[in-house]
Design a protein that fits this description.
Elements (H helix, E strand, L loop, with lengths): L4 E7 L4 E7 L5 E5 L2 E5 L4 E3 L1 H13 L2 E6 L8 E2 L1 H8 L3 E4 L2 H11 L15 E3 L4 E4 L2 E7 L8 E5 L2 E5 L19 H12 L6 E4 L13 E3 H7 L1 H4 L4 H12 L8 H8 L27
Parallel strand pairs: 3-6, 6-8, 8-9, 13-14
Antiparallel strand pairs: 1-2, 2-3, 4-5, 4-7, 10-11, 11-12, 12-13, 14-15
Length: 290
């Protein structure tokens, strides 16, 4: 089995990890969860993160075959469409994204003709789908809990598990967003932990607790032995009690109400209005203060 070379990119403002993995034999690769930068104070997007990814794949000689989203993110904008323009590679996400689109169509009061069929991406993956990146076998695992649409990509010995697990010293990710579920997240984590112990687990976020350097990788075996939410809460009931109690103390992400109306569009801004500009809107008093 060919295993991928993985290059990680960290976006410090949002604590987000982005990845490029490629097959060293064919130099074919894929991008996972790229970030489009957003200055909320200025209402301005820019492409510092995406440009770094673009420079890396060009300098390394990687032929990008897919631009992959694991789910519609609540804490950053997706740079998938911009990278598609630069590289010509198709975009893809899990097929359950249509449920997220329908949910947030209501929250944002989007028009009835807003597409909720996932057509903003080039391809929608079903649970268990497989595809190739060069000679590397990639498997799609439906992995809800953080959102109702999340998927994990297992490429050789690397698993891109998005917002399910954090680093072992931080535990697991939250499950309190609309459509989230601690029960579903527990079941998803069990799927991930059933992978071989040597599987490299690449996470979606790290907030570098206690001043350590940001990290993105641990093995399945390390999570089994050291993950603070799994080690101390071995049963589903115990895990859900820990997860739900923790989620009740967390504020909503600063960029959530901006990011979701971009990311349900596949990373595109809302349609420009009569003056040629796009606008974001905030659903007032839909969410309770935290």
């Amino acid at each position: 089995m060919t295993n991928p070379i993985v290059k990680a990119f960290w976006d410090e403002p949002t604590g987000s990890w982005q990845y490029v993995f490629h097959d060293p034999e064919t130099m074919k690769g894929a991008i996972v969860d790229p970030v489009l930068d957003y200055d909320a104070n200025a209402g301005a997007t820019y492409t510092k993160n995406a440009q770094a990814i673009l420079d890396y794949v060009r300098d390394t000689g990687i032929k990008v075959e897919w631009i992959l989203d694991t789910h519609p993110h609540a804490d950053h904008f997706s740079a998938g469409p911009w990278l598609k323009e630069q590289l010509g590679a198709p975009t893809a996400i899990g097929e359950k994204v249509v449920g997220v689109q329908k949910l947030w169509q209501v929250i944002y009061n989007l028009p009835e003709d807003f597409p909720t069929d996932g057509s903003q991406w080039d391809h929608l993956w079903a649970d268990g789908d497989t595809f190739k990146v060069g000679t590397i076998d990639v498997r799609v695992i439906f992995s809800p809990g953080h959102t109702l649409a999340s998927v994990t990509y297992v490429a050789g010995d690397a698993a891109f598990v998005h917002d399910t697990l954090m680093m072992p010293d931080s535990g697991t990710s939250r499950a309190d967003f609309p459509g989230g579920s601690s029960r579903d997240l527990y079941e998803t984590i069990q799927k991930i932990l059933s992978l071989p112990d040597e599987t490299r687990v690449f996470i979606g976020h790290d907030y570098a607790p206690k001043g350590r350097e940001a990290q993105c990788e641990a093995t399945v075996g390390q999570h089994k032995a050291m993950n603070i939410h799994l080690r101390n809460a071995p049963s589903e009931a115990e895990y859900r009690e820990v997860r739900d109690a923790r989620d009740a103390t967390l504020p909503l992400p600063k960029l959530m109400l901006a990011a979701l109306q971009v990311n349900v569009r596949g990373g595109r801004l809302p349609e420009p209005e009569g003056n040629g500009r796009s606008y974001l809107k905030v659903p007032m008093n839909y969410f309770e203060p935290r």
